[in-house]
Amino acid sequence: MTKPEGKLMGKVIQFPAKTASDSDAAKLLKIADEIDSVILRNLDIGIVDARDIAGLLAHRLGTLMRHMDQKDKLWDVCEKVLKTQAVID
Q1: Cβ atoms 37, 29 nearer than 8 A
Q2: Who contacts 13 (Cβ-Cβ below 8 Å, separation ≥6)?
Q3: Is the full-model pTM beyond 0.70?
Q4: 67 CB contacts (<8 Å, ≥6 apart)?
Q5: Residue 33 and residue 88: Cα distance in Å, rounded?
Q6: N- to C-terminal Cα distance for the chain?
Protein backbone atom coordinates (compact mmCIF):
# COMPACT_ATOMS: atom_id res chain seq x y z
CA MET A 1 0.00 0.00 0.00
CA THR A 2 1.03 3.59 -0.47
CA LYS A 3 2.04 5.96 2.31
CA PRO A 4 -0.57 8.70 2.95
CA GLU A 5 -0.01 12.14 1.51
CA GLY A 6 1.53 14.68 3.85
CA LYS A 7 -1.65 16.74 4.04
CA LEU A 8 -3.46 13.78 5.61
CA MET A 9 -1.01 13.59 8.48
CA GLY A 10 -2.74 16.34 10.50
CA LYS A 11 -6.23 16.26 11.87
CA VAL A 12 -8.72 15.08 9.30
CA ILE A 13 -11.44 17.50 10.40
CA GLN A 14 -10.65 20.99 11.68
CA PHE A 15 -13.16 22.64 14.01
CA PRO A 16 -13.03 26.34 14.88
CA ALA A 17 -11.67 26.78 18.42
CA LYS A 18 -14.60 28.98 19.47
CA THR A 19 -17.12 26.09 19.20
CA ALA A 20 -15.31 24.01 21.83
CA SER A 21 -17.07 25.94 24.63
CA ASP A 22 -20.52 24.75 23.52
CA SER A 23 -21.25 21.39 25.15
CA ASP A 24 -22.84 19.82 22.06
CA ALA A 25 -20.01 21.04 19.86
CA ALA A 26 -17.47 19.79 22.43
CA LYS A 27 -19.08 16.33 22.32
CA LEU A 28 -18.95 16.31 18.52
CA LEU A 29 -15.35 17.52 18.60
CA LYS A 30 -14.43 14.62 20.90
CA ILE A 31 -16.07 12.12 18.54
CA ALA A 32 -14.37 13.74 15.53
CA ASP A 33 -11.00 13.54 17.28
CA GLU A 34 -11.56 9.85 18.04
CA ILE A 35 -12.51 9.14 14.41
CA ASP A 36 -9.46 11.11 13.22
CA SER A 37 -7.25 9.09 15.55
CA VAL A 38 -8.47 5.78 14.13
CA ILE A 39 -8.10 7.01 10.54
CA LEU A 40 -4.64 8.49 11.03
CA ARG A 41 -3.36 5.50 13.02
CA ASN A 42 -4.36 3.16 10.21
CA LEU A 43 -2.91 5.41 7.52
CA ASP A 44 0.33 5.72 9.49
CA ILE A 45 0.89 1.97 9.68
CA GLY A 46 0.60 1.88 5.90
CA ILE A 47 -1.58 -1.19 5.42
CA VAL A 48 -4.69 0.73 4.41
CA ASP A 49 -5.10 3.19 1.54
CA ALA A 50 -6.95 6.48 2.07
CA ARG A 51 -9.42 5.51 -0.69
CA ASP A 52 -10.28 2.31 1.16
CA ILE A 53 -10.96 4.25 4.35
CA ALA A 54 -13.14 6.73 2.40
CA GLY A 55 -15.16 3.81 1.05
CA LEU A 56 -15.47 2.34 4.52
CA LEU A 57 -16.69 5.65 5.93
CA ALA A 58 -19.24 5.98 3.10
CA HIS A 59 -20.50 2.48 3.87
CA ARG A 60 -20.81 3.21 7.60
CA LEU A 61 -22.57 6.53 6.92
CA GLY A 62 -25.05 4.80 4.64
CA THR A 63 -25.75 2.19 7.30
CA LEU A 64 -26.26 4.90 9.94
CA MET A 65 -28.55 6.92 7.68
CA ARG A 66 -30.67 3.86 6.89
CA HIS A 67 -32.28 4.25 10.32
CA MET A 68 -32.95 8.00 10.13
CA ASP A 69 -35.95 10.05 9.14
CA GLN A 70 -35.74 12.71 6.42
CA LYS A 71 -32.83 10.98 4.64
CA ASP A 72 -33.20 13.19 1.57
CA LYS A 73 -32.67 16.39 3.56
CA LEU A 74 -29.77 14.87 5.50
CA TRP A 75 -28.23 13.56 2.28
CA ASP A 76 -28.32 17.08 0.79
CA VAL A 77 -26.41 18.41 3.80
CA CYS A 78 -23.93 15.51 3.74
CA GLU A 79 -23.32 15.98 0.02
CA LYS A 80 -22.69 19.72 0.42
CA VAL A 81 -20.29 19.16 3.34
CA LEU A 82 -18.47 16.38 1.50
CA LYS A 83 -18.04 18.44 -1.64
CA THR A 84 -16.84 21.44 0.35
CA GLN A 85 -14.36 19.45 2.43
CA ALA A 86 -13.07 17.52 -0.60
CA VAL A 87 -12.93 20.68 -2.74
CA ILE A 88 -15.22 19.22 -5.39
CA ASP A 89 -17.07 21.66 -7.66
Answers
A1: no
A2: 32, 35, 36, 85
A3: no
A4: none
A5: 24
A6: 29
Note the pLDDT tens digit of each residue in 3-56: 444 445 455 656 565 544 678 888 999 999 999 999 999 999 988 899 999 999
Q: Do residues 62 and 76 lie in contact, with contact meaning Cβ atoms separated by under 8 Å? A: no
Angle between the N-to-C axes of helices 23-44 and 50-65, in degrees from 0 to 180, rounded to the nearest 10: 140
Contact (Cβ atoms closer than 8 angstroms) between residue 35 and residue 15: no
Torsion angle of alpha carbons 81, 84, 86, 88, nearest 10°? 120
Alpha-carbon distance of 61 to 3, in angstroms, equals 25
7, 50 Cβ separation under 8 angstroms: no
pLDDT at 1: 44
